[in-house]
Amino acid sequence: MSNVSAYINASCIVRGNTVVKNGVRAYEAPPGETLPEFLRSLYDRYSGQYPKFHKMDLLSKLGWAATEILLQEVPMEQYAPEDTGVILANTSSSLDTDERYAETMKEIASPALFVYTLPNIVIGEISIRHKFKGENAFFVADAFDIPFMTGYVQQLLNEGTLQAAVCGWVEQYHSGHDAALFLVEKQPRNGSLPFTANEVEKLYR
């Protein structure tokens, strides 16, 4: 009998204008495409018909698009809204948007940018889209602390606080971007991996 108590049932890495889904390269942007153009390409390719996307800041667009790709063809409606949580981390917080908002304050401060001057807003955008109402948290650290992230999420699953979680790293500053998201569930699906720091590290590389 397996002693594994949680499984990685999907992964999505978005880095260097490239998407890797479940360990397989799924999309690569044309050379020279800017980050806003790349994120719009992901929206058109993997989602569409969600007008609020266009109002988001780049950090939220990155996390939102990565989640869209992560959860494609996964029947998340099997869970009650409060049973799925979102746990994320990055290193720059919302600094990119903070800087752009500060620039607008020299003339007329932009309320549209001010809305996004907290990093956890990306969690809100993901949760609204997928109707998640479970535990959520956003951590800011120097680097992706994989042992901490896996331990924290595992504890939420063990306690019964969550049945599933979207978790990982969503970093964006200027044109730099690095998203690594994982769908973790108590029950395995086809192609599941055990939810351990070692397996997350392998996928993140």
Give the key terms.
Peroxisomal Thiolase, Chain A, domain 1; 8-stranded mixed β-sheet; 205 residues; 7 helices; alpha+beta
Q: What is the mean predicted local confidence, pLDDT?
A: 96
CATH evolutionary superfamily: Thiolase/Chalcone synthase
Helix run count: 7
* Proportion of strand residues: 25-35%
What does the overall shape look like?
Answer: globular
Cα end-to-end separation: 30 Å
Estimate percent helicity. 25-40%
CATH topology: Peroxisomal Thiolase, Chain A, domain 1
How would you sum up the major sheet? 8 strands, mixed
Q: What is Rg?
A: 17 Å
> How many individual domains?
1
Per DSSP E runs of 2 or more residues, the count of β-strands stands at 8
Which CATH architecture is right?
3-Layer(aba) Sandwich
**Class by SSE composition:** alpha+beta
Sketch the topology as an H/E string, one letter per element: EEEHHEHHHEHEEEH
CATH class: Alpha Beta
Unreliable spans are none
